[in-house]
Amino acid sequence: MSDKKEKDRLSKNLERIKPLLKKEDAVVFPDFKKTLIATDIHGDYRALEHILRFAEKKEVDSYIFLGDYIDKGPDSVSVLNTLFEMKIKNPKKIILLRGNHETSNLSGWFEFAEDLVNDPEIFDASNAVFEQMPIAAVLNNKILCVHGCIAGTKNETLKEISKKNSKSYLWNDPGTEDGLLPSQRGSGIYRIGPDMIKKYLKQNDLQMIIRGHTSHTEGVKCFCDDKLISLYSTLPYISPTVRAAVAIAKEDEIKLYYYRKTKTGFEWENETQKLKLRK
Ligand SMILES: [Mn+2]
Questions:
Q1: What pLDDT score was predicted for residue 106?
Q2: 147 touches 66 (CB < 8 A)
Q3: Can you tell me whether residue 193 is helix, strand or coil?
Q4: Which residue of 25, 89, 259, 269 sits 20 to 30 Å from the alpha carbon of 12, by its own alpha carbon?
Q5: How far, in Å, from the CA of 39 to the mean position of ligand 1?
Q6: Per-residue pLDDT tens digits for 169-224
Q7: Where is the Serine/threonine specific protein phosphatases domain (predicted)?
């Protein structure tokens, strides 16, 4: 739910952010020193605030969000406002990738559409902005960040990624069996096997893929000998065992941080996990 003030704020932010996103290609190539990577905020404004405070404490200088800002949680409009204002203030240091919820065929069905049911102009303007979001980011020429996965086409290269034809990158998942397998998510959506992911990384001179899109009880699931990291940064309910995760990338190291949702708020775990980039 969001009030009129938040919606007016969104309306203004949409106007200001559109030209910034339009200028960005489907694949952006940021060179960053210390980067927070988070994903699937899904309308959870409180979790976003918590993650941003954590990132500030860790002194990151840049942010990559892997899409799915809206739906599921109660505060899609406030989440968009916060992230859009960060981007407007510091466009080179904040990357907002597109997720499968930021598409007009999905965003019309869930909580975000419900929030804006009496504001069709703001809803349409949001979808027009979503269409301009980049699809992937190649961090420091090494890590491919994307919401879903690679497309799974033959001899696929980064150049194939376009804003107009992005469905595979927003919807696909990594798989544990080799090859291209159909997905329960729907027709034209695939699970990409470790053989294809390894080949893709080699062919495109990349070392790792970080993606979102799928929730895991552990917050993170590693595929393909730790060359593909599947992250999820929010939690649908309070649970002592389920956790969410964010990553901080610095030079050749990816550090994974986990938090749990408790009755009183959020708690970061002391345990972290380090992954090294390697060819
Ligand atoms: Mn998704």
A1: 76
A2: yes
A3: coil
A4: 25
A5: 9
A6: 999 999 999 999 999 999 999 999 999 999 999 999 999 999 999 999 999 999 99
A7: 97-102
Going from the Cα of 268 to the center of ligand 1, the distance in angstroms, rounded, reads 24
Average pLDDT over residues 2-30: 96
Separation of CA 216 and ligand 1 centre (Å): 13
What is the Å distance from ligand 1's center to 96 Cα? Answer: 14
Structure tokens at 55: 């990132």
Distance (Å) from CA 176 to ligand 1 centroid: 19
Helix (H/G/I), strand (E/B), else coil: 162: coil
How remote is the C-alpha of 261 from its chain's centroid? 20
Question: From ligand 1's centre to the CA of 148, what distance in Å?
Answer: 7
User: Which CATH number belongs to the domain containing residue 68 in this structure?
Assistant: 3.60.21.10
Give 212-271 pLDDT, tens digit per residue.
999 999 999 999 999 999 999 999 888 888 999 999 999 999 999 999 998 888 999 999
Look at the chain and report how many structural domains it folds into.
1
258 Cα to the center of ligand 1, angstroms = 20
Give the structural domain span for 36.
4-276
- Span from the CA of 149 to the centroid of ligand 1 (angstroms): 11
Distance 172 CA to ligand 1 centre (A): 9
Give the whole-angstrom CA distance, residue 71 versus residue 193. 29
Question: What is the CA(166)–ligand 1 centre distance, in A?
Answer: 13
Which residues crowd ion ligand 1, with CB under 5 Å?
68, 99-100, 213
Distance CA 186, CA 17 (A): 32
Q: Express each pLDDT in 73-109 by its tens digit.
A: 999 999 999 999 999 999 999 999 999 999 987 767 7
Cβ 180 vs Cβ 152: under 8 Å? yes
The whole-angstrom separation of Cα 189 and Cα 93 is 31
Q: How many CB atoms lie within 10 A of CB 62?
A: 20
